[in-house]
Design goal:
827 residues; six-stranded mixed beta sheet; three-stranded antiparallel beta sheet; elongated
Length: 827
């Protein structure tokens, strides 16, 4: 390549620079320049910290290096809250006592800059609480904080939940319940208080109280498909069939949008509720799908048999009956493999079971859980033969095995014996067996009703049936019972509790669940990404303010278990000569608030030129770039990448961002040389970086004509190591070392490591990556052992450990774990 111009002699320019440096300057001007250069250098160090984790993965050494770099960045620019916030996250990743104390210190400095950040306040409280060992002292700490009126209501509610957990741990349930109620008075949508209440108090509630609590949990966070299934089961249990089906379907839809599979038990219960609702065709489609996915799901197979029994096609009934037998035997086969410590070879159906050997081994093992599971399978085989096939003789071998596993007075044995007598026409013997357990066993009570129905009046019979159904209105048992009484009762009757439950259902806002619908989410809140500026020079950090505003009439929670997750994922599309799509250029968390009232906002400044964007921006500096950023809320990992999950959506930034081209012309170079001499501190840092990029670009041309220009520019950069500003000198030495060959490179790195400025030694330690691992460890050891600055010692120790790691990857080593669908809350 031939350059279309003559390079300007670097020596002439340097003479001018020296003269400028010798001119008198006011102290305050120098201080302003120093601060500007320090701010630019702080951004460089923070960028290095981020790239370390991406390229090397998250291991203790890289976390320590990240901490040291962020500490150095924070010291250079203590007024920037991003650094202390990110430093706190790094210390949290480190863990242990040192990590905990480091996080407390970082958050304390952060809160001096951002005192209204409630999330940070709560985290500091948690950290201090975790440092207290004695339970009494923990209690005093909670009481003191809870009585502090200056704390926001949401923070005091969090303190109350800490008190509740402490009380429950000490078996002080009454005190724990009081704390929960206090928390919910302060913050009715507190996710943590509601979850605690559900875990510790729901079992003792009436059905309507429990449903009210479940609905409040869903008002807090509608992305709870498992809880929706629990609600559906609660509604089914009181005979509210249509609402139950609605919540089952809604929960499954939310699970699908979240990229997670519904719980198989929930799916089976949904199928059972469809049978109860007499929606047999739809139920059978779902049930057969369940059976195809799980060859051992005998509940689904029994439901399918119930449907075929209604259809009265004998061939299909036989096929369905064999499907039940196969499902149960498959489950027993898998239990047998566990019992004999064999690996199950397949997920397909398997009917090869040696029951005699299994029962013998179960008796010898004393494994109560395994025995109960095996006995359950045997009882299902007996029930299939006796009740569905009306062939008690078929069940004799299973009954013999079952008697070896269960106590003689077992309700299961009494029920099966009673039904065997009943099917065989021995009514007196059946009555003796069934009556003994009918009060506590629904299927035995079914047998008693069958025995006594001819002697009961129509009203008495109906009353007995309704009473039995009211106590067993859902699931496989409910489906079996209602099918047994279809000739007398078309649909499952509602229980006395259903009216109060319906009242709670009617209070729930009808459109709230639309927040989980991708097409409706943005009607509830807006998310806006605003670049702090549009045009950026080469090396200039790209910052954007991310703002979430509640545009609905509802209060919206923000948090890991809330309607809006704090996770913010930013993608970029670069257009121009190097067009490309870049995923996850920034992954951060928004803080400040845990609740947004209507029209309220939460915002945070984030750096967006990270991840793969760093490499894209460091490419050919002559090329301009137009960058379209987009922000994703509630991100989840899907097969094709990260996408908005339920309650989230993607929004484009308000403006495109420009990386302005840096022309490689005599005039442009003259300007950059002048900026390095006389520019503002931050501009000089970036101009040096640009000149370094030009040298690398010239070297890549592999053209003899570019050799002299690259040498001249590199020489100019090297001479800037005498700059009056510490950060500029450090930048010049770092770039010069990266451009030089050994031994000049090694000498430059050693010079940085012995520099009086801790910031320069930090940069020097990062420059060690250009050397051989053995040399890195040798040069870093002295600093790790005896450097006067703790941050330098910390970084040097990390550099020694990292030198033994595999070479850096060109791709991120890990995906942020939080981009996975959040685990659904279940009690």
């Amino acid at each position: 390549m031939r350059l279309p111009f003559r390079m300007i002699a670097a020596g002439v320019l340097w003479t001018a620079a020296v003269a400028a440096a010798a001119a008198p300057q006011a102290d305050n001007t120098l201080a302003v320049e120093e601060q500007a250069a320090n701010r630019a250098m702080a951004e460089k160090l923070a960028q290095m910290a981020q790239q370390t984790l991406l390229n090397r993965g998250i291991v203790p050494a890289t976390v320590t290096q990240t901490i040291a770099l962020l500490e150095a960045a924070e010291r250079l620019n203590p007024a920037e809250p991003r650094f202390s916030r990110l430093l706190a996250v790094a210390y949290q990743q480190q863990g242990g006592e040192a990590g905990r104390q480091g996080e407390i210190d970082a958050l304390s400095r952060y809160l001096k800059l951002e005192p209204a950040d409630l999330v940070a306040q709560m985290r500091v409280i948690d950290l201090h609480f975790s440092q207290i060992d004695a339970a009494d002292q923990r209690g005093n700490y909670i009481d003191q904080l809870f009585k502090t009126p200056q704390l926001a209501a949401e923070v005091r509610a969090h303190v109350a939940t800490l008190g509740a957990r402490l009380a429950f741990d000490r078996a002080e349930d009454k005190r724990g319940n009081e704390y929960i109620e206090e928390a919910l008075k302060l913050f009715p949508l507190s996710p943590e208080a509601l979850v605690l209440k559900y875990q510790y108090m729901a079992a003792d509630m009436s059905p309507d109280q429990r449903v009210a609590l479940q609905l409040q949990l869903l008002r807090c966070n509608p992305v709870r498909p498992g809880l929706m299934a629990d609600l559906a089961e609660e509604l089914a249990a009181v005979g509210l069939i249509d609402p139950s089906l609605y919540w089952y379907a809604t929960g499954f839809g939310v699970a699908q949008r979240a990229g997670s599979a519904p719980d198989p038990t929930d799916t089976t219960n949904f199928g059972a509720e469809m049978v109860i609702a007499d929606q047999l065709s739809t139920a059978q489609q779902m049930i057969k799908s369940i059976m195809n996915e799980d060859a051992a799901n005998s509940d689904a197979a029994f439901l399918n048999l119930l449907i075929e029994k209604r259809n009265k096609d004998e061939d299909k009934i036989r096929t369905a009956s064999e499907s039940v037998r196969s499902a149960v035997l498959t489950r027993l086969s898998r239990l047998s493999d566990q019992l004999h410590e064999k690996e199950t070879a397949t997920t397909q159906a398997s009917t090869d079971v040696d029951m005699a050997a299994d029962v013998k081994l179960l008796g010898e093992s004393g494994n109560a859980d395994m025995t109960a599971a095996y006995a359950s399978g045997l009882s299902e085989l007996c029930w299939l033969s006796i009740y569905f096939n009306a062939k008690p003789a078929e069940a004799e071998s299973y009954m013999a095995a079952l008697r070896q596993l269960l106590a003689p007075d077992s309700a299961t044995l009494a029920r099966l014996d009673g039904w065997s007598y009943l099917v065989g026409g021995k009514k007196d013997e059946a009555r003796v067996k069934l009556s003994a357990v009918a009060a506590s066993d629904a299927l035995s009570e079914l047998g008693m009703i069958k025995l006594e129905q001819d002697s009961l009046s129509a009203a008495e019979l109906r009353s007995r049936i309704i009473s039995l159904l009211n106590k067993n209105a859902s699931g496989l048992t409910g489906a079996l019972l209602i099918e047994a009484f279809r000739d007398k009762m078309a649909l499952m009757p509602r229980t006395p509790a259903s009216e109060a439950v319906q009242v709670e259902l009617d209070k729930f806002p009808k459109d709230w669940i639309q927040l989980t619908d991708f097409s409706k989410t943005q009607f509830f809140y807006s998310v806006k990404g605003e670049p702090l500026k549009v045009a950026h020079a080469y090396g200039e950090p790209m910052l954007a303010r991310i703002t979430i505003t509640n545009t609905s009439t509802y209060d919206l929670t923000i948090g890991p278990d809330a309607a809006i997750h704090p996770d913010i994922w930013i993608d970029a599309r670069v257009t121009g000569m190097s067009a490309q799509n870049l995923s996850g250029v920034t992954f951060d968390r928004i803080g400040q608030k845990v609740l947004l009232h209507p029209k309220e906002s939460a915002s945070q400044v984030m750096r967006v030129d990270q991840g793969a964007m760093t490499s894209a921006l460091q490419a050919d500096p002559r090329l301009g770039m137009t960058i379209n950023f987009s922000v994703v809320t509630n991100p989840i990992q899907q097969e094709l990448g990260v996408a908005p999950g339920p309650g989230g959506y993607r929004a484009m930034f308000t403006h495109t961002v420009q990386r302005t081209p840096a022309p490689f012309t005599p005039d442009a170079l003259q300007k950059q040389f002048s900026l390095i001499q006389d520019g503002h501190g931050d501009v000089r840092i970036r101009s040096l970086e640009l000149m370094g990029a030009f040298v690398n670009w010239l070297k890549a041309q592999n053209d003899p004509a570019t050799k002299d220009p690259s040498i001249q520019i590199a020489d100019f950069i090297r001479k800037s190591t005498g700059d009056r500003l510490t950060a500029v000198r450090a930048q010049s030495m770092f770039i010069s070392a990266s451009l030089a060959e050994s031994p000049a490179r090694d000498s430059m790195v050693k010079q940085m490591l012995s520099d009086p400025s801790p910031a320069t030694r930090v940069i020097g330690l990062m420059a060690l990556e250009q050397l051989e691992p053995a040399v890195q460890k040798e040069l870093a050891k002295e600093l790790a052992d005896s450097d006067s600055d703790p941050t330098v010692r910390k970084l040097a120790g990390a550099v020694i450990e990292i030198a033994d790691l595999p070479p850096p990857s060109t791709q991120p080593a890990t995906e942020p774990a939080t981009t996975q669908p959040a685990a659904d809350f279940r009690p």
